[in-house]
Design brief:
Layout: E1 7-11, H1 19-33, E2 37-42, H2 47-54, E3 58-61, H3 69-81, E4 88-90, H4 94-105, E5 113-114
Parallel strand pairs: 1-2, 1-4, 2-3, 4-5
Helix pairs in contact: 3-4
């Protein structure tokens, strides 16, 4: 069985800073250490944006802090431009799950969506 590196995109709309954001960064670092690519998509004003840059993680700033059509289209355009770059979308939060599920439906090719179970 051959092994292949995966490329994950992680949309995160939160601008706050709680355990969830720290977990995202820790998981991304773990994926990168294992040879995978991980890209965070978040608002430029989000605290996780600067924290990811400080950890030298791949970050794309998008206007995703508000739940609206602009946010959906911004994510769809990003996915369209990079459709061969991402293999899997990870979305632990419900808002991000809905948008990440809707955005690929606007595209000719979709990617698997991974939504881990809630933390206990």
């Amino acid at each position: 069985m051959s092994w292949r590196a995966l490329s994950l995109v992680h949309p995160e709309s939160s601008c706050g800073w709680v355990g969830h954001e720290i977990r995202i960064l820790t998981e991304m670092e773990g994926m990168v250490r294992r040879g995978h690519r991980a890209t965070l998509v978040c608002p430029a004003e989000a605290r996780i944006h600067d924290a990811a840059l400080a950890r030298e993680l791949d970050v794309v700033a998008l206007p995703t802090a508000r739940k609206n059509l602009q946010r959906l289209l911004a994510l769809a355009i990003l996915l369209l431009r990079h459709r061969r770059r991402f293999d899997i979308h990870t979305t632990p939060r419900s808002t991000d799950s809905r948008l990440t599920a809707l955005a690929p439906s606007l595209l000719p090719r979709t990617h698997p969506l991974l939504r881990p179970p809630p933390s206990s």
